[in-house]
Design goal:
Blueprint (H helix, E strand, L loop, with lengths): L1 E2 L10 H10 L2 E5 L2 H7 L6 E3 H9 L1 H10 L6 H14 L1 H7 E2 L21 H12 L3 E2 L2 H20 L8 E14 L2 E17 L1 E2 L1 E8 L5 H10 L2 H16 L4 E8 L6 E6 L1 H24 L16 H15 L1
């Protein structure tokens, strides 16, 4: 069990991060989550877990998304971000998200528009707020976020975590890397990550996740693998150790995005961290190499021979045996 002091974690601005990286090679502290996202593009060689995971999936697609801004956010991302804000940073939720019933335009004759057209003044006001980064929630979405957040807060209380009291939220970590696994990087990197929940005393670091797949064991094991959460656990544990000198294991708190909004903790075994550490170190080396060469992969890929997955191969084998009788 390690114990941290709240006063050791100051609120950071970009200048503080850059100064810490220059002076100590790392920086750790509390951040505004919206500012944090913008800093990645202002710190040379900066890479996060989500960037590293996307890079590992397809380097060329990752490059196009990051450089040309082709990324399309899914509806689930909007909901998950809103729940994160409601639980972890209520002040950000109050500032960024809002709900307002739609006003129907009034015709010259004084009657509501038959086609349901929105009041032009309200439409303009909504557009202005959206341009400023505010997010409009539908009435159903707002109710959903409140119920999900309430269930998460109840689960956190059961785990002994009280946000703002014995648990810090949105703790950002930055670490400068010139080499990985004893191998010099072609281009130095700054690896960053943000802890959703950091109890001042305990054995674990935490991340909050929403899932549309349910919280049964099979679904969560699949999500952990599919979205690279093992990489996140290893990377964040290592970042925390590098920035504080303290070692902690990692756990995730998942909440369903559909009623009844059940939640479940998934702990990452220490034994698996070594494997995921090897994976993220390999990705860091490959990412640095792409930065150095500017080669993110070809549009035309080599020809392949179809190899059916196991379940399909088993079915085919059964059918061939049956047809041979």
């Amino acid at each position: 069990v390690t114990t941290m002091k709240k006063e050791d974690f100051k609120v950071l601005g970009l200048e503080d991060v850059l100064a810490g990286l220059e002076r100590d090679g790392f920086a750790i502290g509390l951040v505004d989550p919206e500012e944090y996202q913008g800093w990645k593009g202002q710190i040379p060689g900066c890479v996060s877990k989500s960037m590293l995971h996307d890079f590992g999936q397809n380097p060329l697609r990752f490059h196009l998304n990051e450089v040309e801004g082709r990324r399309v956010e899914h509806a689930g991302f909007k909901l998950g971000s809103a729940v994160d804000a409601a639980v972890l940073t209520p002040e950000v939720f109050a500032r960024k998200y809002w709900f307002e019933p739609k006003k129907v335009a009034i015709t010259k004759s004084g009657h509501p528009a038959a086609n349901g057209m929105q009041d032009p003044d309200q439409k303009a006001a909504w557009a202005e707020r959206a341009a400023q980064g505010h997010v409009m929630l539908a009435e159903k979405e707002l109710a959903q976020v409140r119920e999900m957040a309430g269930n998460v807060e109840a689960h956190l209380a059961e785990l002994g975590m009280k946000v703002g009291e014995n648990t810090l939220t949105q703790v950002a970590m930055f670490l400068r890397l010139d080499e990985v696994g004893g191998e010099q990087l072609p281009v130095p990197l700054v690896v960053c990550g943000m802890l959703d929940l950091m109890p001042l005393e305990g054995k674990l670091l935490w991340d909050l996740k929403t899932t549309s797949r349910g919280v049964d064991e099979a679904g969560l094991n699949f999500a952990m693998c599919d979205y690279g959460y093992g990489i996140q656990a290893a990377l964040y544990s290592d970042l925390f150790a590098a920035c504080t000198g303290e070692e902690r294991a990692f756990a995730f708190l998942f909440v369903e995005s559909a009623a009844p909004y059940q939640s479940r903790v998934v702990r990452m075994p220490w034994l698996l961290l070594d494997g995921y550490r090897a994976r993220y170190e390999r990705l860091l080396r490959e990412y640095s190499q792409c930065l150095a060469t500017g080669d993110w992969g070809a549009l035309i890929l080599p020809e392949m021979v179809y190899a059916p997955p196991r379940y399909e191969a088993a079915k085919l084998e059964e059918e061939m045996v049956e047809s041979a009788k």
